[in-house]
Amino acid sequence: MAQYSTLADGVFQALADPTRRTVLRRLSRGPASIGELARPFDMALPSFMKHIRVLEQSGWIRTRKVGRVRTCTIERASFDVVDTWLSEQRALWEGRTDRLDQFVTSDISQTKADSQ
Amino acid sequence: MAQYSTLADGVFQALADPTRRTVLRRLSRGPASIGELARPFDMALPSFMKHIRVLEQSGWIRTRKVGRVRTCTIERASFDVVDTWLSEQRALWEGRTDRLDQFVTSDISQTKADSQ
DNA sequence: CGAATACTGAGCCATAAGGCAAAGTATCAC
DNA sequence: GTGATACTTTGCCTTATGGCTCAGTATTCG
């Protein structure tokens, strides 16, 4: 679980930066080289490469170098980490809503169902 | 759009920290006071309060003080920001998968469909 | 083979983030 | 009214982050 939490840390931290989110958006449409990805940004290439490294180390993308060109490909696993986290919160939320609905509908006083 | 991007920045940055994600998980089950939320963490209260401020300023939670107790309540809007972003990437991804399937199935050479 | 291209590594800087302790304020309860 | 409780503010420290420049390496191409 701690390992999962560390994984989640990297996955969510990677999304904290607008540059990296934009890169992910572009890569969702298909693979691209470093140079191609960097073109829309007013940023020095070594700075941009730092973002690519963050995305790669957190599992959002995979990169492969052929000759002098490194191509980036998006990975679904990290999407699933975020998606799973959202689903878990939604399930908790809707569980709470269900209980609230039950309370309102049946008009029965409900004991505090607070565990974990 | 720039305003939306700034909103997204705060929303995603708030998720970058494990303490704040844990707080959101707890609040998904229902409102709680600052003291109650802080209890599971081995952290000074002023440090914990900083996290609460981040979550509030980014729109993840709303807080209300009655007497000496401040109660936090989760807000759905930020969930929707993250959910929307994921859906957009999935749509881009699946659009690419559809085109790839089309390519493989029909065995037709496909021009580069690269548009903004 | 040398110039051009596409990264890559190293070092630096400014700012942000996340923690701490200490002290303060507002409110309850006895 | 005083002690206890629940934050709140301030200032400081360490680490992380995100940017820069410069130089280097590997590869292509004319």
Q: What is the CATH superfamily of the domain at 2-75 in chain A?
A: Winged helix-like DNA-binding domain superfamily/Winged helix DNA-binding domain
Strand content of chain A: 5-15%
Strand order of the largest sheet of chain A: 1-3-2
Termini separation of chain A = 16 Å
Question: How many strand units of chain A?
Answer: 3
- Mean pLDDT over the full residue set of chain A: 86
Largest interface: A-B, 29 and 29 residues
Layout of helices and strands:
The structure is a homodimer of 116-residue chains.
Chain A lengths: L1 H14 L2 H11 L3 E2 H5 L6 H13 L3 E6 L2 E6 L1 H31 L10
Antiparallel strand pairs in A: 1-3, 2-3
The structure holds a DNA duplex (30 and 30 nucleotides).
What features would you describe in this structure?
The structure is a homodimer of 116-residue chains. By secondary structure, chain A is α+β, with helices and mostly antiparallel strands. The first copy, chain A, has a domain of 74 residues: Arc Repressor Mutant, subunit A (Orthogonal Bundle), CATH 1.10.10. In chain A, 64% of the residues lie in helices and 12% in strands. Chain A is built from five helices and three strands; from the N terminus they run ααβααββα. In chain A, strands 1-3-2 form a three-stranded antiparallel β-sheet. In chain A, strand 2 and strand 3 form a beta hairpin. The longest helix of chain A is centred in the C-terminal third of the chain and has 31 residues. Chain A is elongated. Chains A and B meet through helix 1, helix 2 and helix 5 of A and helix 1, helix 2 and helix 5 of B. Chain A binds a DNA duplex (30 and 30 nucleotides) through helix 4.
